[in-house]
Amino acid sequence: MAEILGGIGTSHVPAIGGAIARHLQQDAYWKPFFDGFQDVRQWLQGQRPDVVVVVYNDHGLNFFLDKLPTFAVGAAPSYTSSDEGWGIPTIAPVEGDPDLSWAIIEGVVAEEFDVTSCQEMRIDHAVTIPLQLLWPSGPPPVRIVPISINTVQHPLPSAKRCLAFGQAIGRAIRRHPPDLKVVVLATGGLSHQFDGERAGFINPEFDALCLNSLADDPCRLTGYSTREIVALSGTQGVEILNWIVGRGILGGPTREVCRKYHIPISNTASAVQVLEPR
Ligand code: DHB
Ligand code: FE
Question: Distance from the CA of 147 to the center of ligand 2, in angstroms?
Fold first, then answer.
């Protein structure tokens, strides 16, 4: 049966792609940020997953404001890298795992989560940047299943619904017969806001509360409405919903393997966290 080894949460700021392309990893601005990924890379080397389930939000590449599924699951044989306008380098297409994708789609629909299934899906910076951070020296040695959450156009799914959706995905993965090693990768956040009077808003206290809750008690986050999360975390900080789905996939109690928090990268409070099911 498929096994879930653990979950990684990380920010997905496009400027990181520019820094990678220009080899700025040792530059004073970037060094503390890139050094923060050593522990997670070491953890991954010990785990050697076959598949990474990537929970992220599409930024207008596949879905725009005219059509925006709340939850969309990729079921493609491969995913082409593209972006919605940041001008960052793309990466080679990443192989999918359609069998696992359909197991997830069938499992969550059976549990009454009516997802959009996508047999064609392009991946943007929210998938490609985290993959490059985790496997800096070449193409990622894994297949992926991308799952896109609407964190863009209101009404957004509630934190409670996101945690429950993740739990249903986790059950579907654990019921999948092949002996696959699966890692969850949730991307986005933490606090950031691009627009309006609060542009540049960052909230380290709420970010710490989110990271602590993800590790110890994710249900604490389900007490916040999406409006409250936007107020506390910013209009784009609400991407924390992706992390809540990812945490749901892990299921019961977790052990925190490592955590790094660094502000700011571009407009964003960046974080990386690894959790293992206990
Ligand atoms: C930035 C952050 C994001 O989450 C994103 O999708 C795009 C840009 C930023 O901080 O620049
Ligand atoms: Fe984003």
Answer: 14
- What value, to the nearest 5°, has the Cα angle with vertex 60 and ends 54 and 61? 70
3-state secondary structure of 117: strand
* Cut 0.90: pTM above it: yes
For residue 162, what pLDDT is reported?
99
Sheet holding 3-10, edge to edge: 116-118, 71-74, 143-149, 51-56, 181-187, 3-10, 268-277, 254-265
- Residue 42: the pLDDT is 98
Strands 268-277 and 3-10: antiparallel
* pLDDT per position as a tens digit, 187-241: 999 999 999 999 999 999 999 999 999 999 999 999 999 999 999 999 999 999 9
Centroid of ligand 1 to alpha carbon of 193 (angstroms): 9
Interhelix angle 98-110/159-174, rounded to 10 degrees, is 120
Is-contact 81 148, C-beta < 8 A? no
Q: Which residue in 84, 158, 182, 70 sits closest to 115, CA to CA?
A: 70
Contact 72, 115 (CB under 8 A): yes
Three-state DSSP state, 253: coil
Query: DSSP secondary structure string, 159-192?
Result: HHHHHHHHHHHHHHHHT--S--EEEEEEE--SS-
Phi, psi of 116 (to 5 degrees): -90, 125
Q: Determine if ligand 1 sits within 6 Å of the CB of residue 59.
A: yes
What is the rounded CA–CA span in Å between residue 148 and residue 84? 15
Is the Cβ atom of 236 under 6 angstroms away from ligand 1?
Answer: yes
79-108 confidence digits (pLDDT tens): 999 988 888 999 999 999 999 999 999 999
* Structure tokens given for 189: 């956040």
Distance CA 215, CA 200 (A): 27
